[in-house]
Design goal:
The structure is a single chain. By secondary structure, the protein is of the alpha+beta class. The chain has two domains: about 110 residues, no CATH class; about 70 residues, SH3 type barrels (Roll). The protein contains five helices and six strands; from the N terminus they run αααααββββββ. Strands 1, 2, 3, 4, 5 and 6 form a six-stranded antiparallel sheet that branches. It is elongated, with a radius of gyration of 25 Å.
Length: about 200
């Protein structure tokens, strides 16, 4: 058993940065989580990239140490610290890029894809932030308001509407004393995004 632990522990320590990177990415981005197998493959690829970056950093620091000044001793602890730090930075960077459609926007501009980094449902709300919407319910009711929170999936979740007003016979009926209304998404048939007022 001890022999197995001595063989498995270094392998796990080597793979930890890749798993940290993918864990941060899927925590912070609205990307759908793939299967455990796919995430493991992504973590392996991430580990390989992080290992290359750490190797390049090590070479650069040794070069600086031989030419100018020594920063410090390179040890396995230092290497692990750099690997985990780079994993955290890459995880935050990828989640930022996914949440702001950065990489896909560049790819769309170059004609490489027509997709966004998130689903059309989320893209519509992110493309037009701060706009008033009208939620059209399955039973025919209509609700005007400003969505502060919307579901990440068109079949699940809730809308949090600020300043809600029901639309009855094309007239707005305010809800006195109600600033927010939580609406279940399964009751919504479609959503109208309104044109912002001129002023």
């Amino acid at each position: 058993m001890e022999d197995l632990a001595t063989k498995v522990l270094p392998l796990v320590q080597t793979l930890v940065p890749g798993f940290i990177m993918t864990m941060i990415f899927y925590w912070l981005s609205e990307s759908p989580k793939p299967s455990q197998f796919e995430r493991s493959i992504q973590a392996l690829i991430g580990t390989a990239i992080i290992s290359l970056v750490v190797a390049g950093l090590k070479w650069g620091l040794f070069y600086v140490g031989h030419r100018w000044f020594i920063v410090g001793d390179w040890s396995s602890t230092v290497e692990t610290t750099w690997a985990v730090s780079i994993a955290v930075i890459i995880g935050f960077g990828l989640s930022y890029a996914a949440n702001h459609d950065t990489l896909y926007r560049i790819a769309r501009d170059k004609g490489l894809t027509s997709r966004a980094s998130y689903r059309e449902w989320i893209y519509a709300f992110r493309k037009f932030p701060g706009r008033a919407v009208v939620l059209n319910f399955l039973d025919g009711r209509r609700l005007f308001g400003y969505p502060l929170v919307w579901p990440t999936d068109p079949k699940d979740g809730h809308f949090m509407m600020q300043y809600p007003a029901w639309i009855v016979d094309d007239e707005y009926v305010d809800s006195p004393g109600v600033e927010f209304l939580l609406v279940c998404n399964v009751d919504v048939y479609f959503v109208e995004l309104l044109i912002p007022p001129e002023n």
